[in-house]
Design brief:
- Helix content is about 40%, strand content about 10%.
- A seven-stranded mixed β-sheet has the order 3-2-1-4-5-6-7, with helices on both faces.
- Strand 2 (about 120-125), helix 6 (about 130-140) and strand 3 form a beta-alpha-beta unit.
- The chain has helices at about 20-35, 40-50, 55-65, 80-100, 110-115, 130-140, 165-175, 190-195, 245-255; strands at about 5-10, 120-125, 150-155, 180-185, 200-205, 220, 235.
- It is an alpha/beta fold.
- It binds xylulose-1,5-bisphosphate (XBP) and magnesium ion.
- The site of xylulose-1,5-bisphosphate has 19 residues, from helix 1 and helix 8.
């Protein structure tokens, strides 16, 4: 096993709890603006999270939940309709991010700062739209933080989104690094399927939508990263003597056989 050189972070659910009060709200704003009369409730949105990617989520909804949906003739196909609607959703989501409504999860800022001080390389691997990542980073850590991440692998850069391994593999190719020198951070079943299929050891922090997902194969499952005065809860696995995620703990997890 080589030594730990890089941390590769998912974004939605991992760096920030973005889905319920972020993406979902923005989708509904786009539906209102377009006069569609759709309402993605907290519960329905949980079902729609079975697919990653906002355009894919709109398509799933139309095909599986709206039997009587008729496509307006201005659109060539459902993909074009979903892409147009999704553009508006992204507009509203970026507004939300800029307003500061979506904070990072507890412990994320500290962990990123500690990782930088320790000389670890940082990257992002996500299915969300690239602007969603840079706006989140700017709003929470400051504009300069975008450059702390050597690679931001996001959105449609690979055709097969998570759970396919492609977005992780693409990020590692760009970094010219092998998976056994990296640790991945995820929050969901589709996410962990993707990182494990790319041969990355993976640390999970769950959120409201993913707490019952099957994380078999992850090195550790926690409720949060924790801070020195607010410890994490271990949901699966062994955290040793650690009570919040720090660089020493990540090195120990990474070195496990
Ligand atoms: C995150 C997603 C994203 C967001 C929406 O999955 O599924 O699709 O919900 O982003 P992961 P866009 O955390 O596993 O990457 O609407 O920009 O696609
Ligand atoms: Mg996620």
């Amino acid at each position: 096993m080589s030594k730990l050189e890089a941390l590769v972070f998912d974004v939605d659910g991992t760096l920030a709890d973005t889905e319920r009060d972020g993406h979902r709200v923005a989708f509904n704003q786009a539906f209102d603006e377009t006069g569609l009369g759709w309402d993605w409730t907290v519960e329905l949105y949980g079902e729609l999270l079975q697919v990653t990617g906002g355009k894919e989520r709109i398509t799933l909804y139309v095909e599986k939940f709206l039997e009587d949906f008729e496509l307006d003739e201005q659109y060539e196909d459902i993909a074009e309709f979903a892409a147009r609607l999704h553009k508006r959703k992204t507009h509203f989501y970026l507004e939300l991010l800029q307003s500061g409504a979506i904070p990072l999860r507890p412990g994320v800022e500290r962990l990123i700062n500690e990782a930088r001080e320790a000389g670890l390389r940082l990257a992002i691997s996500t299915t969300t739209t690239p602007d969603n990542v840079t706006y989140l980073l700017s709003a929470t850590l400051g504009k300069e933080s975008i450059d702390w991440f050597e690679v931001i692998a996001a959105g449609d850069i690979v055709p097969a989104k998570k759970p396919a391994p492609d977005i992780y593999t693409w990020a590692m190719e760009q970094m010219n690094i092998s998976p056994d020198a990296c640790l991945a951070f995820e929050d969901s079943l589709n996410g962990v399927k993707s990182s494990l299929a790319a041969d990355l050891k993976t640390l999970i922090t769950v959120n409201g939508y993913t707490k019952d997902d099957d994380f078999t194969g992850a090195v550790l499952v926690l409720d949060q990263y924790g801070e020195p005065d607010t410890p994490f809860k271990v949901l699966e696995g062994d955290a040793g003597d650690f009570s919040h995620v720090n660089v020493a703990m990540l090195k120990e997890l990474h070195a496990r056989g």
